[in-house]
Amino acid sequence: MFREKLAQDAARIQDQFDLVLGALDDLDVTRAMAYATEGGKRLRGFLVLESARLHGVDEDCAIWPAVGIEALHAYSLVHDDLPCMDDDDLRRGRPTVHIKWDEGTAVLAGDALQTLAFELCTRPEVGEAEVRAELALTLAKASGAQGMVQGQALDIAAETAATPLTLDDITRLQAGKTGALFEWSACAGARLAQADPEPLRQYAQALGLAFQIADDILDVEGDAEKAGKRLQKDAGAGKATFVSLLGLDAAKARAVELVERGCAALDGYGASAETLKDAARFVIARDS
Q1: How many Cβ atoms are within 10 Å of 103's Cβ, its own excluded?
Q2: From CA 80, how far away is CA 73, in angstroms rounded?
Q3: Are the C-beta atoms of 54 and 203 separated by less than 8 Å?
Q4: Per-10-residue mean pLDDT, the chain, length 288
Q5: DSSP readout, 126-139?
Q6: Which of 52, 143, 172, 173 could form an SS bridge with 57, CB 3.0 to 4.6 Å?
Q7: Which residues, 6+ apart, have CB-to-CB distance to 107 below 8 Å?
Q8: Do 69 and 184 meet the contact criterion of CB atoms below 8 Å apart?
Q9: Cα(59)–Cα(66) distance, rounded to whole angstroms?
């Protein structure tokens, strides 16, 4: 049931992407933008839409920030795959953008997707000016030097650090690199409704770490064909991960504990939050 709901929202997000990107000039960079935004689980966009439903916000308003966060996530993947970053040639079972086109096109496509994210979050359809400004401000913090970019910078620095990362270091790193966008997505519905986002923030912080632990587990024992990317790169590079620091069994137990904590944060919403709880359970049960 949850997977069906996730797929429905993913299709709705793709339809909106087709509408938005279809209005742009037909250039290599716009074709690369469309390519980069195809596929994936759309979990961040789903969190925007579902948290909006939780607060009675119309989907016609919520779809814009839902597509916005997916555009920003796509930009991060395009740049993360570049040779100067993680140097990957496969993403979602297809050649990465810089392989299919070239590095210059990949950089520009990522840049354009990042700015598109802010354009979509501030569309008039989203709501009052105060709401749109809050979405843009918090997205800037979540995606920049206080959030995702900071996490990526810490990850790069760790590759040449004299001492290996500790568990606290990894937790801080991943709270930025992975968790910040999850937190923004889950809180978006409350911000759209001008409600208190704190319960959703607690939920998302737990979900984001659980998601990353699940990724680390998949990197060790996952199926590369299902994952659509090369696995066991972290181990090959000698990078510290939740699995390398905790061990496989303890990492799995930590992920379950985080999901339980995240679900408990939503208890105040009653049965209305059950789909969000299902999302948390999904992130540690997925195979890709």
Answers
A1: 13
A2: 10
A3: no
A4: 96 98 97 97 98 98 98 98 95 96 98 98 98 98 97 91 90 95 98 98 97 92 66 64 93 96 98 98 90
A5: G--HHHHHHHHHHH
A6: 52
A7: 79, 82
A8: yes
A9: 10
